[in-house]
Amino acid sequence: MVISLKSFAVLCFLYLLLLGGCNAGISDKNLSFISPEDAAISLRDGSSNLLGPKLQTMLIDPRTTWDFRKAHIPNSINIPYGRLNSQVWLLDDAGTIIVCGSTYNDSIAIAMSKTLLALGFKDVKTVRGGIKGWERAGEPITTLE
């Protein structure tokens, strides 16, 4: 089988175009991280006027319901990552969404943040250090005990 130079060039171009399309979407570069201290300040301020009137700053905990019940940040909302699609309506009034997982570089918190960005939420931040970093920063934690 003989392929002409022109056909080879077209095939190479299509291959490169296909590879370039694989990089479309939300990646780690799209994530915005926030320190526990800055997250606590944002939550105390309560609303975001930049995105419209009376939009709430909300703290989302994507961990399992059991982990959330054992220990969580006061006033956070537990939306386990696997239930996000059925519970995304809870975020209708959200301006800034802060996601807090278990630890630094928590894969569930990162996946939640990426999914929220893909769903069209504009101001999504991920807490560095997760709930452990929150506690190390001296911020309050609600526990079962």
Write a structural description:
There is one protein chain. By secondary structure, the chain is an alpha/beta fold. The protein has a single domain (26-143), classed as Oxidized Rhodanese, domain 1 (3-Layer(aba) Sandwich). The protein is 39% helix and 19% strand. Strands 1, 2, 3, 5, 6 and 7 form a 6-stranded mixed sheet that branches. Strands 4-8 form a two-stranded antiparallel sheet. Strand 6, helix 5 (107-118) and strand 7 form a beta-alpha-beta unit. The longest helix has 17 residues, at 5-21. The protein is globular, with a radius of gyration of 20 Å. The N and C termini lie far apart (74 Å). Residues 16-24 have low confidence and may be disordered.
CATH superfamily assignment? Rhodanese-like domain
**Spatial extent as radius of gyration:** 20 Å
CATH class: Alpha Beta
Secondary structure class reads alpha/beta
Note the run of SSEs as H and E. Answer: HEHEEHEEHEHEHE
CATH topology: Oxidized Rhodanese, domain 1
Low-confidence stretches: 16-24
Sheet with the most strands?
A: 6 strands, mixed
Distance between the termini: 74 Å
Query: What do the pLDDT scores average to?
Result: 83
Shape: globular
Whole-number tally of structural domains: 1
Helix content percent band: 25-40%
Count of alpha and pi helical runs: 6
CATH architecture: 3-Layer(aba) Sandwich
Number of strands: 8
Strand content: 15-25%
